[in-house]
Design a protein that fits this description.
- The chain is an alpha+beta fold and about 300 residues long.
- It has a single domain, classed as Neuraminidase.
- About 20% of the residues lie in helices and about 40% in strands.
- The protein is built from five helices and 21 strands.
- A five-stranded mixed beta sheet has the order 2-3-4-5-9, with no helix packed on it.
- The protein is globular and about 70 Å long.
Length: about 300
């Protein structure tokens, strides 16, 4: 009888262990732990050479951790750097607003965006021009940098609408601009994830209508560990793209051919983060290479390479 009881006890223990293992395997597959581990191991051999010619995200550490932005109760979304003014521009999607922030995430100014709908992203084009993306409309709208208090009107602004997907709430989530190459990068969050390159944007504003839209599906199709795409930044110093994935809580760096160079997890304990970034919505880098990130509802992060 004692032998049978011990056998039953061993059997129950094995079942619990097997169940625990299955749960761990399932959880790991959901966040693609295997891909992250394999990529980390494969790049360890090339770390020194890649580090010299890339942003090398693993070395970024948080400097400002989950700071609430004053006067913003929620819906904080896209982010971009304006080197001419030495400040950040952010957008709120509801109510639609353009915000000015400093490097410390301090609120500077607010400009209502009248006539705009579901604004999710913003990028600085240079020459006192900003471009904002309306998600549901799949529209890209060029607006002047505000020079005085008061609202900015959508009516009369130059815009480009790309009806590439259905009228739903999974449209354009991020935009980034390469000034030297006159290339605009646009990401769609999910269902499906998409990365587009639009050439000739600034030239078209000057009357030279030679827009070219390129589907960069090949650059992201094998990046399964980034299960969605919520923001994008173009780094002029390296020619690389930086992508933000909210669901995967990670930032990825791609080179000029779409190959992944490095990544940084945004989980609790990584990069010095106290807690995981709850809902990353926008990111950008300044001219010093510091990385800034905003997360809903109203959180601001700053990272620096150490």
């Amino acid at each position: 009888m004692k032998v049978m009881a011990r056998l039953r006890e061993v059997s129950r223990t094995q079942l619990w262990l097997a169940a625990l293992l299955l749960c761990l395997l399932y959880a790991g597959s959901q966040v693609h732990l295997d891909e992250r581990l394999l990529y980390s191991l494969s790049t360890a051999y090339h770390e020194s050479s890649r580090e010299q010619r890339s942003l090398w995200l693993p070395e970024y550490r948080v400097r400002i951790d989950a700071k609430p932005v004053a006067t913003v109760p929620g819906n904080l979304s896209g982010l971009t750097w304006d080197e001419r003014r030495g400040q950040l521009w952010a957008v709120v999607n509801s109510p639609a607003e353009l915000l000015a922030l400093d490097r410390q995430g301090r609120f500077l100014a607010r400009y209502p965006l009248q006539g705009f709908e579901d604004v999710e992203a913003v990028t600085y084009l240079g020459d006192d021009l900003l471009l904002v993306a309306e998600e549901r409309r799949q529209a890209l709208v060029v607006i002047p940098v505000p020079t005085r208090d008061g609202p900015l009107q959508r009516a009369g602004q130059r815009s480009l609408t790309l009806g590439l997907h259905g009228d739903d709430n999974s449209g354009f989530e991020g935009v980034a601009y390469d000034r030297a190459g006159d290339r605009l990068f646009v990401v769609k969050e999910h269902s499906p994830r998409k990365l587009y390159e639009i050439r000739g944007l600034r030239a078209s504003l000057d009357g030279d209508m030679r827009l070219e839209v390129i589907d960069r599906e090949a650059w992201i199709e094998d990046k399964d560990m980034a299960s969605d795409l919520s923001s994008v930044h173009y780094d002029a110093h390296t020619g690389h793209l930086v992508l933000l994935s909210d669901e995967a809580r990670m930032v990825l760096e791609l080179d000029g051919t779409g190959e992944m160079v490095s990544f940084r997890s945004l989980w609790s304990g990584f990069a010095g983060l106290r807690d995981s970034v709850p809902q990353g919505e926008g990111l950008t880098l300044d001219d010093h290479g510091d990385l800034y990130l905003v997360s809903e509802p109203n959180l601001f992060y700053a990272f620096e390479r150490r």
